[in-house]
Design goal:
With 47 residues, this protein is mainly α. The protein is 68% helix and 0% strand. The protein contains two helices and no strands. It is globular. InterPro entries: Arc_rbn_hlx_hlx (IPR013321), CopG (IPR002145), Ribbon_hlx_hlx (IPR010985).
Length: 47
């Protein structure tokens, strides 16, 4: 199940992630979800 999540980020960071999403032909939410999953996986593997 997907759920809406709102947060605040640095303006320049938002611009960069939007550009990267366009370059990768995806949307920001999918890109952020992938990055968060990778981050959590790495942290779990190190514990």
């Amino acid at each position: 199940m997907r759920k809406k999540f709102t947060t605040t980020l640095d303006e320049e960071l938002i611009k960069k992630i939007k550009l990267r999403a366009i370059q990768e032909d995806t949307d920001v939410s999918k890109l952020l979800e992938k990055l968060i999953q990778e981050y959590l996986y790495e942290k779990t593997e190190k514990e």
